[in-house]
Automatic annotation (TrEMBL):
UniProt keyword annotation of NADP present: no
Residue ranges annotated for the Flavoprotein domain, each copy included: 12-184
Residue ranges the record marks as coiled coil: none
Gene Ontology terms: cellular component: phosphopantothenoylcysteine decarboxylase complex
BP terms from Gene Ontology: coenzyme A biosynthetic process
TM ranges: none
InterPro entries: Flavin_trans-like, Flavoprotein
GO MF term set: FMN binding; ligase activity; phosphopantothenoylcysteine decarboxylase activity
UniProt entry keywords in alphabetical sequence: Ligase
Name this protein carries in UniProt: Phosphopantothenoylcysteine decarboxylase / phosphopantothenate--cysteine ligase
Length: 193
């Protein structure tokens, strides 16, 4: 008996990775998405480079990782954020740092990921990841409310042990749960057609 094809088969997923200790989990998100047949394009924020390497993510996604606006500074070639926003079936930001959440919620645009978000016409999903006090801060909670008001799906941050040693919400949703949530979303979309 064969298993049914994943609803992510052939889907184009933009994965934004931000500066967070949870960035190492992005590699597994990429691996799981590719395994079910999705095409994954990774966009790193500058601070993500302190936590995960482009080589790891490009090897898993089989695509060059995008890191900034310019491809080739000398030639003036750039990564077209508008094209990326139109190409994608979904934009997933995992992990989504407090800094990036603030940028997205307030229309700040100094990274390629910010520009892609502002250009995206596809559904957007964010998986917050930060320490307990940062997550619970009123500014972060206001940013999450704003994103929800804009139609962004904000996945709940599970409670557990954090890198600081504190315990509570702030952990990134596990990669398997992210992929399962995306599969459910696209399956529901398919059934509505």
């Amino acid at each position: 008996m064969s298993t049914p094809a994943s609803s992510l088969l052939g889907r184009k997923i933009l994965l934004g990775v931000c500066g967070s200790i949870a960035a190492y989990k992005a590699a597994l998100v990429v691996r799981l998405l590719v395994k079910v047949g999705a095409e994954v394009q990774v966009v790193l924020t500058p601070s993500a480079l302190a936590f995960v390497t482009p080589l790891t993510l490009s090897t898993l996604s089989k695509k060059p990782v995008l890191q900034g606006f310019l491809k080739d500074e000398v030639a003036g070639e750039w990564h077209n954020h508008v094209h990326l926003g139109l190409w994608a079936d979904a934009l997933v930001v995992a992990p989504a740092s407090a800094n990036t959440l603030g940028h997205l919620a307030n229309g700040l645009c100094d990274t390629l990921l910010d520009a892609v978000y502002l250009s995206a016409r596809c559904p957007v999903f964010v998986a917050p990841a930060m320490d307990l006090d940062m997550y619970q801060h009123p500014a972060t909670q206001a940013n999450l409310r704003h994103l929800r008001q804009y139609g962004t799906t904000v996945w709940d941050s599970p409670a557990g042990e954090l890198a600081s040693g504190l315990s509570g919400p702030g952990r990134m949703l596990e990669p398997e749960a992210i992929v399962a949530s995306l599969e459910d979303f696209f399956q529901e979309k398919k059934e509505q057609q």
